[in-house]
Design a protein that fits this description.
Elements (H helix, E strand, L loop, with lengths): L1 E5 L3 H13 L3 E5 L2 H10 L4 E4 L8 H10 L6 E5 L4 H9 L4 E4 L4 H15 L7 E3 L2 E4 L4 E4 L2 E2 L4 H12 L5 E2 H8 L10 H13 L4 E4 L3 E4 L1
Parallel strand pairs: 1-2, 1-3, 3-4, 4-5
Antiparallel strand pairs: 6-7, 7-8, 8-9, 10-12, 11-12
Helix pairs in contact: 2-3, 6-8
Length: 217
């Protein structure tokens, strides 16, 4: 799951990127509001973690711009500002959640999972299709009740497919959500992950739509 982190504090940003990556997210980190707008204009993210006190363009301005273009990407505001009016304005502008610094990384990861779940209209935390069940919080997968070991990338790919069960996802859409700007990606990497998932979970789970992409069905 690909997350955009917008935070100008290098120490805090580095810790957030490392912690969220360890929690299973692919994290792209930017340090100013104008760079965030440029990225959100051309890239797709599952959610945005947005600081308010950003250089070049304030976080609230970024949020207002995002919602002004009818982009419903979940936004979690992360800020040291504790005044009520800042919180109210952020929520009124379309923020989905608001967390004050200092914070707990596990809480941030859990809130992000909840935001993405709500964005997909999925009230239950566990994803299931046939005999396969995936728990995003525990990062665990079972098939017919038996635990299945997946690599982090295989897990993220399966989660994307199950979240969009019955819908064809293009290669580009999958790669945009699986990899950050800094990842070196082989041309056949996606096909290799699909092959491994089929080997571990059965060929019927993931269908290839020739010339278009892949679908869990």
């Amino acid at each position: 799951m690909r997350i955009l982190l917008v935070e100008d504090d290098r120490m805090l940003g580095d810790g957030l990127q490392a912690g969220l990556t360890q929690a299973g997210y692919a994290v792209d980190w930017l340090r100013d509001g104008e760079a965030a707008v440029a990225a959100l204009s051309t890239e797709s993210f599952a959610a945005v973690v947005l600081d308010l006190g950003l250089p070049k363009r304030d976080g609230l301005s970024v949020l207002q711009w995002l919602r002004g273009r009818h982009d419903a990407t979940p936004v979690l505001i992360l800020t040291a500002r504790d005044q009520l009016e800042d919180k109210v304005r952020g929520l009124d502008l379309g923020a989905d959640d608001y967390v004050l610094k200092p914070f707990d990384l596990d809480e941030i990861a859990a809130r992000l999972r909840a935001l993405v779940r709500r964005a997909h209209g999925r009230p239950e935390p566990v994803l299931s299709l046939g005999e396969v069940e995936l728990d995003p919080a525990a990062r665990s997968v079972t098939s017919a009740g038996v635990a299945v070991e997946l690599t982090p990338r295989e897990f993220d790919l399966l989660q994307l497919l199950l979240e969009n069960s019955g819908r064809v996802l293009t290669r580009r859409a999958l790669e945009e959500q699986l990899y950050t700007w800094n990842d070196a990606v082989d041309s056949n990497a996606l096909e290799v992950h699909i092959h491994h998932l089929r080997k571990k979970l059965g060929n019927e789970l993931i269908r290839t739509v020739r010339g278009v992409g892949y679908m869990a069905s």
